[in-house]
Amino acid sequence: MSEVTEDARASITRSFRFEREVLNVLDDEAVHMGISVNALVGIILKRYAEFTRYLSKIDMVVVNREMLTSILDELDDEKGYELGSKLGRSILPDTLMFWKKELTERGIMEYIEKVMCRYGHLGTYDERLMPGGQMTIVVRHGLGKKGSSFLEGYLKTGFEVTVGIKAVVETTKSSVKCELPFAPRS
């Protein structure tokens, strides 16, 4: 007898009721984005499932980018790096443990991609598997040179403390590149 397993990505039809005002906002936003309301609601629910439901549990707040950049600009490069390193030592592994329930290479990559970039809006994320099994990730951001120093400390220390990986980090005014000596595993 063979066992039938359901694909976790299979779609399921559900019906929901919304207030007219909410539907008007969804309709307008879907038109603006060039997608269907169904696709928009799917995006919203996925964001909730992957991120929003954890916000209060991991003590996150939404901060205006200009406010964050102004705070970082008050630090010299060394202090920015030190602050990033201090927070990478505590916040990154604590958040990853709470969110994924384990500390893995793939988990930290998802944390950077989803929590920091996609949903946290600190920047955009890109990764590339390099020959020889190494991984390169780049976070492009709008936090300026001081933001790069902060993120360098945060990511470099975060990788080392969380998964024992020594990342080689390069920065520019608007990006942080991490070269990692592994191809991420779950």
Can you give keywords for this protein?
186 residues; alpha+beta; Muramoyl-pentapeptide Carboxypeptidase, domain 2; four-stranded antiparallel β-sheet; globular; disordered N terminus
3D structure, described in words:
This protein is an alpha+beta fold. It folds into two domains: 20-50, no CATH class; 65-180, Trafficking protein particle complex subunit 3 (Muramoyl-pentapeptide Carboxypeptidase, domain 2), CATH 3.30.1380.20. It contains six helices and four strands; from the N terminus they run αααααββαββ. β1 (123-129) and β2 (135-141) form a beta hairpin. The chain starts with 19 loop residues before the first helix and ends in a 6-residue tail after the last strand.
Could you provide a short overview of the structure?
The chain contains six helices and four strands.
Helix content: 40-55%
How far apart the termini lie comes to 31 Å
Strand content: 5-15%
Number of domains: 2
Secondary-structure element series: HHHHHEEHEE
DSSP helical segment count: 6
State the shape.
globular
